[in-house]
Write a structure and sequence with these properties.
eight-stranded parallel beta barrel, binds sodium ion, TIM Barrel, alpha/beta, 2 domains, binds 3-methyl-2-oxobutanoic acid
Length: 262
């Protein structure tokens, strides 16, 4: 999967499935399942690091996880998520940090914001790095929103989001994540753009969908938004396995003869 392939998906009306991954083990599983876009999301701050938001994730941490994923992925498009403060401060920093993701093995970067970051997007695109935008409930602005809340509600907010999406497209963005916005607005935006929209909590009309891997697998249950669908219940399985292991160690039934060397 390449960036031009993604554009072709939209033209051919072939829906794009995206998931996050943060390490080689899961990157391989995701790829084996035929999913062709992997986002190394700064959501790792929450699901891997256990923080309450993504704001403290650093470039060094993102690059480490990007290297793990990119080193394992063979056919997938790997997108590195630019963390808070890695693109906001200056164009120079944004360019250098975007480039560092590419050096770590990513094929593209993602950053949050609309018209306000349009200059950054076009500067990064000009050095040959594809950029995915991210609009709606952008987690790096959580304090401005006062929590993780649906965005783009009401006529004015909806119009503003549409204009932000058009500004991103005009800046050369190759796609846009739409997070936690009404399905009708996501449909309008998707139809207004020639670049693909990737929804999360944005209804069924987007050109693709993205989910956080550990949400999808039912591993992370501390905070489960309405838009998450757990396709497995791996936390339940893990708990069961660990409890049985503990029991068998305590009872002396593990290891048995077949797990022992003679
Ligand atoms: O960090 C992340 O995982 C994301 C996706 C949920 C879009 O930004
Ligand atoms: Na993110």
């Amino acid at each position: 999967m390449t960036v031009p392939d993604l554009q072709k998906c939209k033209r051919d009306r072939r829906k794009i499935a995206v998931v996050t991954a943060y390490d080689a083990l899961f990157a391989r599983i995701v790829e084996q399942a035929g999913i062709d876009v992997i986002l190394v999301g700064d959501s790792l701050g929450v699901v891997v690091q256990g923080k309450s938001n993504t704001l403290s994730v650093t470039m060094e941490e993102m690059l480490y996880h990007t290297k793990l994923v990119a080193g394992a992925a063979q056919r997938s498009l790997v997108i590195g998520d630019m963390p808070f403060l890695s693109y906001q401060v200056s164009q120079e920093e944004a360019l250098r940090n975007a480039g560092r993701f590419i050096q770590a093995g990513a094929h593209a970067v993602k950053l949050e914001g609309g018209a306000a970051v349009a200059d950054r997007v076009s500067a990064i695109v000009k050095i040959g790095v594809p950029v995915m935008g991210h609009l709606g409930m952008t987690p790096q602005s959580v304090h401005q929103y006062g929590g993780y809340k649906v965005q783009g509600k009401g006529k004015d907010r909806a119009q503003q989001l549409l204009e932000d999406a058009q500004a991103l497209e005009a800046s050369g963005a190759m796609g846009i994540v739409l997070e936690a916005i009404p399905a009708g607005l996501a449909k309008t935006v998707t139809e207004a753009l020639t670049i693909p929209t990737i929804g999360i909590g944005a209804g069924p009309h987007c050109d693709g969908q993205v989910l956080v891997l550990y949400d999808l697998l039912g591993l992370f249950d501390e905070f489960v938004p309405k838009f998450v669908k757990p396709y497995a219940h791996l936390k339940v399985d893990a708990l069961q396995a660990l409890r049985r292991y503990k029991e068998e160690v305590e009872q002396g039934t593990f290891p048995s003869d077949s797990e022992s060397y003679h």
